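Predict structure. Input: Protein arginine methyltransferase NDUFAF7, 420 residues.
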Amino acid sequence: MAAPPHLLSAKAQTPNPPLSTLPSPCAAVEMFRSPTAAAALLRRLAPRVSGGGGGGAATRWRFPPPVSASVLSRFSSTSTSSPSPPPPSAAARGDEAEDGDHQEESGDSGARLSITVDRSGLYNPPEHSHEPSSDSELVKHLKSIIKFRSGPISVAEYMEEVLTNPQLGFYINRDVFGTSGDFITSPEVSQMFGEMIGVWAMCLWEQMGQPEKVNLIELGPGRGTLLADLLRGSAKFVNFTKALDINLVECSPTLQKGQYNTLKCEDEPVGDGTRTVSKLCGAPVHWHASLEQVPSGLPTIIIAHEFFDALPIHQFQKASRGWCEKMVDLAEDSSFRFVLSPQPTASLLYLSKRCGWVSSEELEKVEHIEVCPKAMEITEQIADRISSDGGGALIIDYGKDGIVSDSLQVWILNSFYCKI
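Output follows.
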């Protein structure tokens, strides 16, 4: 695109300086090393830039403001030493003088004000030790919870962390059953135990009218030994095994892998995904973290063997101010100890519910009471499911027909260790 006429005329009327009059690049560098030479160059270019020597209409070229000689002198030296800082400006000197005046005025104001702080009432934590601790990671975790809360935790929370903490829990990362574990359950002693439960399950299925599909649910299946014996014992009853949809409620990834192997499971492609099938009977197998996650809508057979006795409990003790919850706290030597809650806790609601099932005479005789809210909740879930879907439940566990006062105890390597 052609330039407008007035711009063409302006360009023609403003001659460019001849190249012969400009210094070479090397000469220009030398000039800028010398402040005097740089000033002379600027004087030579001034008439050409302003248009005074070209005649006619002048065209103004804009250049940055000239650099002062003091600034150029900083670049003219070839010394490698650091340049000295520039002297302070008049304004800076005025500020410094003003500050000095203020300091003199404050010095003439009389005696200085002194402030002291009484730290005698402040908390002085013990000196931090860098010595290696003998506490396990789980013990450190429990102590950190108590310290973070600035107070004790319930026995139920203590049990839940010890048993089912996602990283450090007793049931989570290892197989605790059998002769090499900490305790043995009935299915590990004889296969007849699981086979007898299989007979009960088939009888219940027939009583329900032999439905084509039925949910077989086991809570806390351990190694899966009980269910494997049940399926092997009922393998000849094809209609029953074909109707089964097996659902295992298990929160431990380690135990889930063991159950997968015990039940001879394999993964089969189904559409765009896969499903797990037990080769003992061909029934599909599913794992869930809780009973609520098991799909409803089918007749249900629920089995719970030594499941409820591993659920967290709350403990209460009678005191002069009434029933108080037993809590777990840290002693001065950083060991665990039992304490009583200074204020009523929310768990007292479950205590009043539990005490409603016993006579006042029996309640007067006891000093300690255990309550398991989780067991109450799961029992209600089982009752609601059977009421809506039909079926039955078989619960096998240790218990007492009355108030349980103190059943918390420790077993190690299949031997009783201590009461807690």
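The mean pLDDT is 78.
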